[in-house]
Design brief:
The chain is an alpha+beta fold and about 180 residues long. The protein has three helices and six strands, in the order H-H-E-E-E-E-H-E-E. The longest helix has 21 residues. The protein starts with 14 loop residues before the first helix and ends in a 14-residue tail after the last strand.
Length: about 180
């Protein structure tokens, strides 16, 4: 039996009503708090109800939860560029990883020159999630890359390499 939009009640299963309900909730809740007619606990519970409705609704507004991750600073100024992979070995210091999906991660790293003990440039390449899980921030690794400069990939970790610790910035002293 087919029900009309009004007969569906509080479920807001029709997409138009979902959008209108979301807009109405935001405007009425904000104005009710501003007027003082809505208590803090009512506001918390109304937010809880809205979060549960969004979780049940699905679609492009899927709540994927908190994505933990830490980001360290690069030792080189400027944005990371695509690594020019030619099948070579390089010593890298990873500082950031992003999960891309499909079992792959984008790894940003600084390239370390062992001859001069200087960080040369900041680059990125792609790696499988298993391999990226073994690359820890602020550690040095000798890794092997593929030979495709348009799609650089870290193929294997050859060894962990000791690299110098970053210099601490001088702290300002109160006068």
């Amino acid at each position: 039996m087919r029900r009309s939009i009004r007969q569906q009640g509080d479920t807001l299963s029709h997409p138009v009503l979902q959008a209108l309900g979301s807009i109405a909730w935001r405007t009425t809740t904000k104005s009710a708090i501003a007027r003082g007619t809505c208590s803090d606990s009512e506001f918390v519970w109304s937010g809880n109800r809205a979060a549960k409705a969004a979780a049940n609704r699905g679609g492009p507004d899927i709540d994927r939860g908190y994505k933990p991750g830490a980001i360290a600073r690069s030792m080189v100024e400027g944005a990371a560029t695509r690594f020019p992979a030619k099948g070579q070995l390089a010593v890298i210091r990873p500082y950031r990883k992003n999960l891309l999906g499909g079992g792959e991660e984008k790894v940003r790293f600084d390239i370390f020159n062992e001859g001069t003990h200087v960080y040369v440039e900041s680059s990125y390449a792609f790696a499988s999630t298993d391999l990226a899980g073994e690359l820890h921030r602020q550690h040095g690794y000798r890794v092997r890359f593929n030979d495709d400069p348009q799609y650089p990939q870290i193929l294997e970790i050859v060894e962990e390499v000791p690299i110098p610790k970053p210099l601490a910035l001088p702290r300002s002293t109160p006068e």
